[in-house]
Amino acid sequence: VKIATNNAEREKYDTLADLYAIIKTADFLEKAYIRDSCTLEEYKPICSKLIAQYQTALRVVNMTDTALVDKFVQDYKLDCRAGIERLKSGSPASLIDQPHVNIVRSVAEATQHFITTMDSLKLGMTAIDQLLPLLIDLQNSLQRIGPLPSTFTGKDKIRSWVSRIEGRPASDELNEEDQRQLLFDLETSYNSFHQALSN
Questions:
Q1: Region at 39 (left for phi over 0; alpha for psi -120 to 50; beta for the rest)
Q2: In contact, 143 and 131? CB cutoff 8 Å
Q3: pLDDT for position 102
Q4: Which of 58, 167, 168, 181 could form a disulfide with 172 if both were Cys (CB 3.0 to 4.6 A apart)?
Q5: pLDDT beyond 60 at 179
Q6: What's the pTM value of the predicted model, to 2 decimals?
Q7: Angstrom distance (rounded) from CA 199 to CA 196
Q8: Spatial distance between the Cα atoms of 188 and 168, rounded to a whole number of angstroms
């Protein structure tokens, strides 16, 4: 089927196809970011490039009016709300996109869970039914903060400990070697956590 009668029309349709692909890609990237499937360092440059390509494509096809973009999305049945909103915003997401109060609360909760878990270990609370709930609370609080720099490996360490002990009987206790390693992982993750936030 011939849809273009000259070079100008052909370029327009090619650009519309590019715009479609940009929106789909941006939506996929946003969902990966939300699910913490990519790091902040991986996300930002790709998102910035997509935004630049999106803005260029809009100028080429004279669709700088938001209403025209909405019509394009509707006409082509693009169910990509997250991607569209990000492209329209003109900048990549980051921790500062969250309300300031929520960030402060999430950081405070994670800090408290780190301290509580470390103190519990130091006080001799080494049974699985004592440690597992604390580690799960810590894991969930870190997840609520959102993506952190790739230099922060605390999430992976906590997740590994949860997976390692969650299938064990409640009355089991960590041996001395595991206690020492868990405390070390918690302390290094706690220090790395605050270093990541300051950066």
A1: beta
A2: no
A3: 61
A4: 168
A5: yes
A6: 0.52
A7: 5
A8: 25
| Structure confidence at residue 94 as a pLDDT band (50, 70, 90) | low
d(CA 35, CA 12): 35
CB–CB of 90/51 below 8 Å? Answer: yes
Other CB atoms within 10 Å distance of the CB of residue 35: 10
Query: Which two three-digit tokens encode residue 86?
Result: 């990000």
For range 136-145, the mean pLDDT: 87
- Cα separation of 114 and 194, whole Å? 11
Q: What string of H, E and C letters represents the secondary structure of 82-114?
A: HHHHHHHHCCCCCHHHCCHHHHHHHHHHHHHHH
Q: pLDDT at position 165, please?
A: 92
Which of 17-26 are b and which e, b meaning 16 or more Cβ less than 10 Å from the residue's Cβ?
ebbbebbebb
Percent of the chain with pLDDT over 90: 42
